[in-house]
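thread: overnight batch results

M.L. [08:02]
morning all. the overnight job finished for the chain we discussed friday. pasting input first so we're all looking at the same thing
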Amino acid sequence: MTTQNIIYEDSDIMVVHKPADIATQTARLGQKDMISELKNYLTEKAADKREPYIGMIHRLDQPVEGLLIFAKNKEAAADLSRQITANKVQKYYYALVWGVPEYPEGELKDYLLQDMRSNQSKVVAAGTKDAKEARLQYKVLGEQEGVSLLEVKLETGRHHQIRVQMSHAGMPLIGDAKYGSDASKEISRQMGCRQIALCASRLEFIHPRLKEKKIFIIKPSNQVFSPFFTS
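M.L. [08:03]
and the structure it wrote out:
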């Protein structure tokens, strides 16, 4: 990660473009994560070199790139966490999937059960013990040779939610070895896609101190998206 990954910074918050294949936070010794990278960055900037405060507000899966908010003080962290809980932080993704949805726009509603041992989730029947409702909306932005570019808006934040729901709907993500189908894995190989084609591309929230609406938008750095962003 470099300073170019920092999209916005003030005295209260940081908005960062997390690269793929780096964890938001990890307990594994010797493995980089966003929390430690940002603490190092802020420590180098500070005059007193004290360990800075970084509050994690939400996560992205390690293989997924995109926008994340971090708080630089406890007051900002508490306010942003309340916004997350109240579903006031709007999160949008670009996703490349194998398949073409029947309708140009739609909603997926499922119940997901997480298996901690395998670090996977699956769709289960409503009423299944420990299952959680998962909802998202999608819109088709383009299609090329059976691969569709979707804009996905998350309504809930469940473990591997987009990957699981899209796969269950018959539209697995390009580059997803865990939840992909045999066909999507073969297409991913042909496309040379070694990362999950998913990017947290847009964030909307209220600044915890200024009380202004903030909107941040990025394009995916994964080159597999390039044919859809030529203009």
